[in-house]
Amino acid sequence: MSRPACPLYLGSEEVEKHFPSASLLIPPLETALANFSSGPEGGVVQPLRTVVPVEKYNGFLGVMPAYSAVDDALTTKLVTFYENMKDTSVPSHQATVFLFDPRNGTLKAVIDGTVITAKRTAAVSAIATKFLKPAVADVLCILGAGVQAHSHYEIFTELFSFKEVKIWNRSREKAETFAQSVKGPAQVCSSAQEAVTGADVIITVTMATTPILFGSWVKSGAHINAVGASRPDWRELDDDVMRNSVLYVDSREAALTESGDVILSGAEIFAELGEVVKGTKPALSEKTTVFKSLGMAIEDTVAAKLVFDSWSSSN
Ligand SMILES: NC(=O)c1ccc[n+]([C@@H]2O[C@H](COP(=O)([O-])OP(=O)(O)OC[C@H]3O[C@@H](n4cnc5c(N)ncnc54)[C@H](O)[C@@H]3O)[C@@H](O)[C@H]2O)c1
Ligand SMILES: O=C(O)[C@@H]1CCCCN1
Questions:
Q1: What is the DSSP annotation of 53-101?
Q2: pLDDT at 1 over 70
Q3: What global pTM score does this model have?
Q4: Which ligand is nearest to the CA of 124?
Q5: Are 243 and 226 in contact (CB under 8 A)?
Q6: φ, ψ for residue 175 (rounded to 5)?
Q7: Contact present, 187 and 175 (Cβ < 8 Å)
Q8: 62 Cβ inside 6 Å of ligand 2
Q9: Which residue windows are coiled coil (predicted)?
Q10: What ipTM describes this predicted complex?
Q11: Contact (CB, 8 A) for 300 and 73
Q12: Ligand 1 atom 1: the closest Cα is on which residue?
């Protein structure tokens, strides 16, 4: 019996190279979201992720396995995320995706998951926004100025035509650095309220554990992508915005288990994004809408396959 070959390793630079634009991910991600929301016939097997708290250091380890029959792809992402880190040279989120041969279980590749996590999360928010943004969407607001703020800025300015981008961060200095580093306009705001006022699309991408977005600030009909607060006792959005918006989620099961914004507000889930993509639930874009994103393993499966296939065809 021959031993399996050593798995391929693709670091973040290689991943970037084989993944020039996150918008490449939109079609396969839409298919994956629709398949996920189709139950067993969609061919997606994705148990709820396991999250191990590392209390002593305010950290968490997430284990995110998934199989997609349509893509014939099997992966597990391991992701760590740490709150209030003193050492700012280390990213708050670090991830690795393991890609297996689904025919025999051989580990084919170990792929940096940090770039994948940044790009696939932003691409899913872009899908939600395509369906749920108001007919006229001139002003984009981003709360947060970290990794996800960058990946969201990149794909949102590529796919949509906002006239204005307003950005707020807890430390203004980081928002200023963000505005100087992006290729395009970004207006730094002194408060979250100032950034949110008048915005048609709002993205919350912070490590906040208590609300930073309040319903009284939100323009009627706006669309909100709520990307942070992925623990059952963490919040980014207040009860007002949660209860008075139409609520879309990536996964009902995950939202009811992991999302403090959903669990603690008692807001009712209207639909999964995959149901909107399939057309079995409407996109009520004239209403104020929230897409609560927690991140799904199947998104990493699709992204890792795209990177691996691109690498294979060029080697
Ligand atoms: N839904 C998903 O699929 C998904 C995927 C990855 C990350 N996330 C979440 O998105 C959020 C941003 O992730 P990131 O990788 O950009 O993190 P990051 O550490 O790069 O950036 C976090 C930003 O939040 C700000 N911040 C930190 N604590 C805050 C607080 N208490 N109040 C307000 N702002 C605060 C920081 O200044 C920073 O600008 C996190 O909550 C993360 O868990 C979600
Ligand atoms: O889906 C993800 O990759 C992230 C991991 C960290 C917490 C939020 N969701």
A1: EEGGGTEEEEEEEEEETTTTEEEEEEEEEESS-S-TTS-SEEEEEEEE-
A2: no
A3: 0.98
A4: 1
A5: no
A6: -65, -40
A7: no
A8: yes
A9: none
A10: 0.99
A11: no
A12: 294
In this prediction, residue 85 carries a pLDDT of: 73
pLDDT digits (tens, 9 = 90+) for 228-250: 999 999 999 999 999 999 999 99
- Residue 51 near residue 77 (C-beta atoms within 8 A): no
Cα-Cα-Cα-Cα dihedral sign, residues 193, 194, 195, 200: positive
Q: Indicate if the alpha-carbon torsion angle 269, 275, 281, 285 is positive or negative.
A: positive
d(CA 280, CA 274): 9
Cα of 147 vs centre of ligand 1, distance in Å, is 8
Judged by DSSP in three states, 3 sits in: coil
Instruction: Collect all residues with Cβ–Cβ distance below 8 Å to 75 and sequence separation of at least 6.
Output: 65, 66, 97, 98, 99, 100, 297, 300, 301, 304, 305
pLDDT in tens, 143-191: 999 999 999 999 999 999 999 999 999 999 999 999 999 999 999 999 9
Residue 219 β-bridge partners: none
How far apart (Å, rounded) are the C-alpha atoms in residues 275 and 36?
9
DSSP-derived secondary structure letter, 25: G
249 neighbors 255 (Cβ within 8 angstroms): yes
The string of DSSP letters for 159-207 reads HS--SEEEEE-SSHHHHHHHHHHSSS--EE-SSHHHHHTT-SEEEE---
CA distance 114 to 52: 19
135: which 2 tokens? 């007919």
Q: How far is the CA of 140 from the centre of ligand 1 (A)?
A: 18
Pocket-testing residue among 93, 143, 251, 301, ligand 1, by greatest number of atoms within 8 A of Cβ: 93
- Does the pLDDT value for residue 84 go beyond 80? no
